[in-house]
């Protein structure tokens, strides 16, 4: 719980950074690793969406195959994290490094050893790992055999994988997240194998249910075998504002929020609310369930909520006006906000609003495990990267975090800005959409030395951590 006894961030607050395996590691075919769906994603851009191929096609560029090359450079990268003073590092384990096809009888020892070494390197510097079990990188072998997550075979395979890594790393990792941005099954068909429309909603909700069950079984196993572990859910959050005081806009905004809370309600409360059941009825969805699903959801409630926050949305009922982008959803342009190079609305106050929404609703500890500004960084003539725009973005969001703790009493325990080292964008495949404190010398086509270079934000964030958020 929050141990703050006055002003400022609580003692022991976890400052750090965040990445995912498929976006940072590379080495996609090394150490016995199998193919994940992320390995089949081609390069895209801000205007041209990524596509997914059935197999690796000669002549096509797949950005995650090398990514930021952390697979070979993790010691160098972790040393830089330690130099910034990281207290924690949110990462993911690549499922296909452990089970190359998704459900082999025995795990891949080379993959397990890689994460042993990486985790040991973090712990050597006193950096607490926060590990995501599944981060948009399902094994291709499973999808070829079973289709998608609406097949309950995925539950067994995922829980088997989760148990193996819990058994292996429980003495090294205290904090675990089951699924990254679990609610994006509603918005990101590219990560979930289908187009989202009214006809497919039965599949979407079935996929969500099966992930709820897999998460619950994972939580139950962790609590029974390793009582000291904390297992959380991870939500893709975005503040939703009604376009006006027109009741239709207010109700539309509420319904958009409910699409997010549908997921956290089940995982934190341990059951489907009446409103959630109403959504299923509205789409004529009859979930395929097992007899013990209901009890498992109840017994497998998560210990905390981790969430991503980048921007807010404005919601208007019945409109065909142009929309602006966000992390996983879109909305109307807010005239009071600026936008990023990629058109995302910048709204630091929306983070305080979101923190209050989640904490008031659930009263469990919170982690912000993704937040940051994707921008086109340039190396100046002096050889430096002067990313004051990123410093300003993060500074304003940290101010709102502090207010949420001090004024609103929110129990916030960690902050890990996204892409603390430059990584491949999940949505576009670009390297030029940079978030990091550390620059990676690589372009959108994989050309470059991949050398690391500190940005101005590196020294700024180092000071923030050293002062526990007092010096911004």
TrEMBL record:
User: Where on the tree of life does the source sit, at the highest rank?
Assistant: Bacteria
Q: Which UniProt keyword terms apply here?
A: Glycosidase, Hydrolase
Q: InterPro entries under this entry? A: GH (IPR017853), Glyco_hydro_1 (IPR001360)
Q: Which Pfam families match?
A: Glyco_hydro_1
Q: Which family does it belong to?
A: Belongs to the glycosyl hydrolase 1 family.
Q: What is this protein called?
A: Family 1 glycosylhydrolase
């Amino acid at each position: 719980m929050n141990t703050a006894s006055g002003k400022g961030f609580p003692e022991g607050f976890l400052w750090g950074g965040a990445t995912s395996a498929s976006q940072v590691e590379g080495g996609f075919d090394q150490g016995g690793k199998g193919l994940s769906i992320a390995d089949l994603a081609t390069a895209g851009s801000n205007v041209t969406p990524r596509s997914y191929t059935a197999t690796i096609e000669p002549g096509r560029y797949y950005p995650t195959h090398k990514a930021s090359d952390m697979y070979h450079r993790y010691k160098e990268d972790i040393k830089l994290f330690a130099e910034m003073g990281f207290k924690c590092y949110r990462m993911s384990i690549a499922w296909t490094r452990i089970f190359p096809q998704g459900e082999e009888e025995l795990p891949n020892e080379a993959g397990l050893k890689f994460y042993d070494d990486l985790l040991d390197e973090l712990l050597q510097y006193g950096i607490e790992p926060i590990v995501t079990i599944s981060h948009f990188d399902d094994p291709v072998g499973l999808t070829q055999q079973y289709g998608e997550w609406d097949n309950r075979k995925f539950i067994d395979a995922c829980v088997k994988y989760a148990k193996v890594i819990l058994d292996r790393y429980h003495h090294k990792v205290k904090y675990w997240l089951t699924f990254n941005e679990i609610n994006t099954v509603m918005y990101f068909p590219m990560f979930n194998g289908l187009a989202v429309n009214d006809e497919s909603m039965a599949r979407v909700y079935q996929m969500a249910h099966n992930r709820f069950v897999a998460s619950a079984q994972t939580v139950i196993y962790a609590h029974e075998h390793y009582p000291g572990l904390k297992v959380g859910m991870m939500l893709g959050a975005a503040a939703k504002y009604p376009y006006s005081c027109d009741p239709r806009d207010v109700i539309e905004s509420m319904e958009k929020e409910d699409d997010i809370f549908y997921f956290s309600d089940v995982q934190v409360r341990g059951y489907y609310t009446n409103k959630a059941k109403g959504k299923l009825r509205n789409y004529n969805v009859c979930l395929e369930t097992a007899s013990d699903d209901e009890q498992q959801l109840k017994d497998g409630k998560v210990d905390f909520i981790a969430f991503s926050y980048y921007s807010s949305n404005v919601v208007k009922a019945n409109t065909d006006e142009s929309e602006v982008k966000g992390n996983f959803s879109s909305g109307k342009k807010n005239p009071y906000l600026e936008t990023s190079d990629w058109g995302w609305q910048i709204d630091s106050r929306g983070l305080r609003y979101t923190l209050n929404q989640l904490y008031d609703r659930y009263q469990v500890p919170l982690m912000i495990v993704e937040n940051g500004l994707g921008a086109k960084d340039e190396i100046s003539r002096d050889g430096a990267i002067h990313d004051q725009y990123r410093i300003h973005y993060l500074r304003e969001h940290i101010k709102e975090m502090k207010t949420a703790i001090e004024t609103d009493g929110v129990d916030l325990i960690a902050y890990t800005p996204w892409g603390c080292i430059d990584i491949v964008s999940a949505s576009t495949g670009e390297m030029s959409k940079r978030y990091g404190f550390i620059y990676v010398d690589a372009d959108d086509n994989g050309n470059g030395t991949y050398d690391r270079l500190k940005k101005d934000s590196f020294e700024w964030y180092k000071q923030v951590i050293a002062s526990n958020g007092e010096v911004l």
